[in-house]
Amino acid sequence: MDGLGKEGPGKLFDDWPEIYDQWFETPIGSLVKKYEAQLIGEFLNPMAGERILDAGCGTGVFTLEILSTGARVFGLDISIPMIQRARRKARGLPFWVLGGDLLNLPFPHESFDKTLSVTALEFIADGRRAIAELFRVTRRGGIIVVATLNRLSPWAERRKARSHPIFDQAIFRSPAELLELAPVPGSTGTAIHFGKEEDPHRAPEIEAEGQRNHRSTGAFVAARWKKP
Fold first, then answer.
1. Do residues 191 and 207 make contact, with C-beta atoms less than 8 angstroms apart?
2. Strands 72-77, 95-99: parallel, antiparallel or unpaired by DSSP?
3. Which one, of 168, 143, 147, 145, lies nearest residue 156 by Cα?
4. Domain range holding 99?
């Protein structure tokens, strides 16, 4: 995607499927997944029978939540090992996967009722082009949701401070910067107001306080647009 990484982002993630899923099984990771899934569900509002694209679906961590509503989901990712794992996890459900690039989606115009991309935009320098592709394949009146890591969050600061082959190349964006990538006005929300090292018993209270105060510094930021 847009040339990030010497071997490209697909290769960068090829060794990560199991490690990625294991993180979400840890006490803090499971809370992160819960609150991120809640924000995605609120913005996307998937419904039975809808055709939904999950662009950058990875191992299907959030795809399975969408499938549970009865929606039909097409998962796309640049890492083949990632989508192979997603397909195994969603066996028997209306889920189709293919390898592909978010900058050049292999679908006709207006193919989907709704489109979603979660934590893929960090690895695309040309964010406007990526968002434009999601708009292109979404029907008129359809919904586009993009979630990414928030530049305003302490999590982003920590990731940038670490020497890591993934986060060294990541492009973090603020809620306002994310909205600016789309051709129409939208809305944003954030989640994960607690730290990675926080006591899992205290994290829900911290999260609730952050949500009550509508803080813009949550580690996970999602944007929602409606295609005119």
1. yes
2. parallel
3. 168
4. 8-226
Q: Any idea what the CATH number is for the domain that residue 65 is in?
A: 3.40.50.150
- Going by C-alpha positions, the residue among 99, 119, 221, 224 that lies closest to residue 170 is 119
Residues 6 or more apart whose Cβ sits within 8 Å of residue 45: 143
Residue labelled with tokens 């192979």:
84
d(CA 202, CA 193): 11
In a domain, 3, yes or no: no
DSSP alpha helices (H): ranges in the chain? 8-13, 17-23, 27-44, 63-67, 80-89, 127-136, 154-161, 175-179, 203-212
- The verdict on residue 2 lying in a domain is no
Based on the structure, what is the number of domains in the chain?
A: 1
Strand-pair category, 51-55 with 72-77 = parallel
Map tokens 């459900």 to a residue: 93
List beta partners, residue 53.
Answer: 74, 115
- pLDDT values of the chain reduced to their tens digit, one per residue, 228 residues: 333 333 344 555 666 667 778 889 999 999 999 999 999 999 999 999 999 999 999 999 999 999 999 999 999 999 999 999 999 999 999 999 999 999 999 999 999 999 999 999 999 999 999 999 999 999 999 999 999 999 999 888 777 666 566 677 789 999 999 999 999 999 999 999 999 999 999 999 999 999 999 999 999 999 999 999
Distance CA 135, CA 70 (A): 23
Structural domain contains residue 136: yes
- pTM summary value: 0.91
**Does a structural domain hold residue 94?**
yes
